[in-house]
Structure of TIGR02679 family protein:
Amino acid sequence: MTVDRGRAVALFGEELTWIVDRLQARLERGQPLHGRLRLAHPTDAQREAVERLTGRRPTTAGSVSVEVADLERILAHAGIAPDLRSLVETLRGPVLDRPAAAAAEQRRWRLVHDRLRTDAEDVDPTLVAWADELATTGLLRRLAGDAEVAAQLGDQALEVLRRLPADAVPLPQLAATSLGDSHALDDGTSLSTLVLRGIESVTGLPRRDRRAAERRALWARVGVLLDELSAPVLVAGLRPSGDGLLATTLREHADAGEPCRITLRLLVRHPADWTSLRRQRVLVCENPTVAAAVTDRCGPATPPLVCTDGQPSGSVQTLLGQLVDAGVVLDFHADFDGGGVRIGNLLIDRFGATPWRMGRTAYEEAATSASRPLGAVPPEASWDPELSAAIIARGRAVHEEQLLDELVTELMRDRWITPG
């Protein structure tokens, strides 16, 4: 007996399509076809269709149901279908074996990750941890969606990572030479996400969700330039070793008692030898006015100072990373407000910086003369939870510009500086 397709289509129209849906779902899950099919809150048309199918008397119950065994007998007796599987396959096509399909999909993904792990080890053994993380966190699967696409993304990421570290290469150039597309590594693409995770593994940097400035700094860490001329970092009193352009420029400015702005391009293309500053303390402040005031008072005796000029840009973070790698110790001071606390948290988390005059007591002493109302509520200060609570309680922000005389005086005293 074969399925009478015409009668089956006519019988299982709009009012009874839910029956075929339930049968198909059970078959796809590998469940046996027995028991009862139930529909809650049926429409009047659905209720009447079930009554016609089963020959039952009309009811007003809150649901309708059909016994699977009864349904199969009714269809066979009417010559519509020999069994329910044949009915479903005639109306819906071949039944998908979902457990088998899921197992096959898992095998495909396992092969993708196994191959990526092997290829990653060939490029750099430290990338094995990267490949393992992509598998365990499911990141590659989320970014690609499809195993074939994932395999291609993995190959492309390794092709880029194989070329790192680079020698001051602009990001579009790296993308063009390694992938044939200058936009392939644009910020926010799946491929750039994978490569940045790989860079974190190779450099041993902590895993985190990074803002744009931190991503630029991460690229710069391996000699790749992104926005190489924008947002230069303001410094003063830095005297690195070496005869390169950056080192000589900084020493000349320091000897003249003048601040200096340096671009990411200079930091990467003309790196200075920071080892001469090993174990020295460098102050990181937030506002350029502080750098100007310190150099005005101290001249050539200005202590080593880096200004973030707001939230640290890629240039700032690249410089701070180079200093920390050379054994420099960072202190920091910032505004007593939401932005300043966020800067402090970043500097501690990313560079192990130490707060300088940035505790609750320092804030409360300064807040007595503060006139600025607090804007955004600050997050908790990782170095002093009482600080943020005090700022919120007073509702006042204290900016570095309001403390210039005090900061310069304390800086000179703490560091035994003689004004120039």
Observations:
- The mean pLDDT is 90.
- The first strand starts at residue 36 and ends at 40.
- Residues 98-123 form the longest helix (26 residues).
- Residues 99-225 form one domain.
